[in-house]
Amino acid sequence: MAVDGVGGLNSNMFNEALATQAGAVSNNSAMSMDDFWKLLAAQLQYQDMSNPMSNSEMMTQMTQMASMNAMQSVSDAVANFGTVTNNLSQVILTQYSTGMIGREVTVAVMEDGKVTGHKKGVVTGVDLTGAQHVYIGDEKYELSQIMSVGNVPEDTSDKESGSTGDGAKA
Fold it and tell me: Quick one: how many helices (H) and strands (E) in the chain?
């Protein structure tokens, strides 16, 4: 075992501490603040007493670790943003669909993915399981089939073009 410097620093012990730290880091693939503090303590414990680490070097390392920690927090927040956004959209969609109860709506009547007409009625219920649906009487319609809410005057441009407003030609 070689002893370096006046303070009795053992370079092999320092290398072993770094190797142990590197092994811990490779398992987790990221350094935590605990890992940083352990590494800093090892540096202070095994430093050469004739040439100790300067305060500016230590502050630089602490600042770098704090920056890395802040970036990790931002990264985690961005990663969780998709989940938060999805939950928020579900809440808004639920609020919208339950707000339809008791309101008069016009829904598109669909057949094989094509609009074949429309139907007016009062929303009597909402199904919140899976894809959200509204009920007009006993008939179930997807939220995407709602064409209008309330009493909306008929569009006269359809009559001029030969449409009856229910999807059929005059």
Answer: 4, 7
From first to last of its 170 residues, the chain has per-residue pLDDT tens of 444 444 444 555 555 655 555 555 445 556 677 887 888 888 888 888 888 878 888 788 888 888 888 888 888 877 777 777 777 888 888 888 888 899 999 999 988 888 889 899 999 999 888 778 899 988 999 888 898 888 878 776 655 555 455 555 44
Whether the predicted model's global pTM rises above the 0.85 cut: no
Listed in sequence order, the residues at least 6 apart from 136 whose beta carbon sits closer than 8 Å to its beta carbon are 105, 107, 119, 121, 122, 123, 124
**Residue 81 backbone phi and psi in degrees, to 5:** -60, -40
Instruction: Please check whether residue 159 is in contact with residue 168, taking contact to mean a CB–CB distance below 8 angstroms.
Output: no
CA distance 40 to 43: 5
Question: In whole angstroms, how far apart are CA 43 and each of 62, 87, 114, 168?
Answer: 13, 46, 72, 82
86, 80 contact by CB (below 8 A): no
